[in-house]
Write a structure and sequence with these properties.
The chain is of the alpha/beta class and 215 residues long. It has helices at 2-13, 29-39, 48-54, 60-71, 79-93, 122-140, 156-166, 192-201, and strands at residues 16-22, 96-103, 109-110, 118-119, 143-149, 174-178, 204-205. Helix 7 (156-166) packs parallel to helix 8 (192-201).
């Protein structure tokens, strides 16, 4: 037991980089608990242990349902500044020196006619995340970069719109794109044009593959 504790402590103290972290999936439980209490719609969630029990996944579909449930407690784009800061604070506690944070602004915005649009504009989310990462760098010295998840389920048309509207942030912390989501229903082929355009704009490219099906 003592040896395993020493190994765990040694690992925690090692300097590290984190190259694949979904920021909204890495919200520290105490931060998420404060968001849940602020919204006040989950009387059965009162402690961090309650949250740990809730986040028990049975399969990918169950994971996605819990992911969507968790998103409902982000009630303002300004929540993203604190979330980013707290995620980086937590990583700093693990002696992470550099992190690439994937975020999914499309989860919080619906496109359509002006009367149908709702949620938090991706630009505002991105600005708040940049503020949070800059504050964390000032306080902890942890460096970070942002990767926007185009969410393959939303389709390539919205993906193309997303890379255009967020391109002004490429020199302010945003570095790349990815596509996550239900690849069994939304294969990557239709995104080829999006990726060509993203490369032209200066995005670095990555993609999720094999999460649910295939190899």
């Amino acid at each position: 037991m003592q040896a395993s504790t020493q190994v765990a402590q040694l690992i925690r103290q090692m300097p590290k980089v984190e190259l694949h972290l979904h920021m909204e999936g890495a919200i520290p439980l105490d931060t998420l608990l404060s968001l849940i209490k602020k919204k006040g719609t989950e009387p059965e969630i009162n402690t961090v242990d309650d949250l740990r029990r809730r986040f028990t996944y049975t399969d990918f579909d169950n994971f996605i349902r819990l992911w969507v449930w968790k998103n409902t407690f982000i009630t303002s784009e300004h929540d993203f500044e604190q979330i980013t800061y707290d995620v980086l604070r937590d990583l700093h506690g693990q002696n992470v020196k550099y992190a690439e944070l994937t975020y999914s602004p499309g989860d919080y915005w619906r496109h359509g006619a002006p009367s149908e649009r709702k949620g938090f504009p991706p630009q505002k989310i991105t600005e708040c995340i940049i503020e949070g990462k800059q504050r964390a760098y000032t306080d902890f010295g942890i460096k970070s970069a942002l990767i926007v998840d185009l969410i393959r389920d939303h389709g390539p048309e919205i993906g193309m719109r997303r890379i255009e509207e967020l391109s002004p942030y490429l020199d302010k912390g945003l570095v790349g794109i990815t596509i996550g989501g239900s690849e069994q229903h939304h294969p990557p082929g239709p995104y080829a044009g999006v990726y060509r355009r993203a490369k032209e704009l200066g995005y670095r490219l990555s993609a999720h593959a094999g999460e649910v099906c295939g190899r």
